[in-house]
Amino acid sequence: MRLLLSVAAVVLALDVVTKVLAVRLLVPGQPVSIIGDTVTWTLVRNSGAAFSMATGYTWVLTLVAAGVVVGIVWMGRRLVSPWWALGLGMILGGALGNLVDRFFRSPGPLRGHVVDFLSIGWWPVFNVADPAVVGGAILLVVLSLFGFDFDAPDRHRGTDDAPATADAPAPAEPVDADPAGRRTPDDSET
């Protein structure tokens, strides 16, 4: 949980600081060239989700993001794997970064527009939170595909070598058989 919260705090801090700088230093509609026209700083206010989808449902996106945050924190209580902590921390930090905008930017709480400012080629304008969320999600998919459990530090699914517990059934007693495989009577059956 400590690693998860530390990663989330770093992502959140980077996201908030870069958005504050973007709002102070950039003028909407006037891109600043970094590498020709391929990489620019371009200030955009996004009321929707990624790629400006669901622009009329800002309050729904806010509630969904809040649910994701609560789910990650709840899941973090059982978290043991440092790789899962890294991935979930990236997603948590990015979700919190965009939630800060949804709650505190205009036009108002639950309807705030997210500040986007990084533009690379034909890709839609984004912010620091966006690649953190995507990168964290990719990491979790890879961990899942390779069978890494979030609640076991070094164990893969299906390779649990845990000792038997008191709840486990006792092994069946062997049946006496003659060499041909037929059952032979013992003293209790005669």
Automatic annotation (TrEMBL):
Q: What PROSITE patterns is this protein classified in?
A: SPASE_II
- InterPro entries, A to Z: Peptidase_A8
The organism named in the record is Mycolicibacterium sediminis
Q: In which pathway does it act?
A: Protein modification; lipoprotein biosynthesis (signal peptide cleavage)
Task: Please give the name of this protein.
Answer: Lipoprotein signal peptidase
Localization terms from the record: Cell membrane
A single GO CC term for this protein reads:
plasma membrane
Its GO biological process annotations read: proteolysis
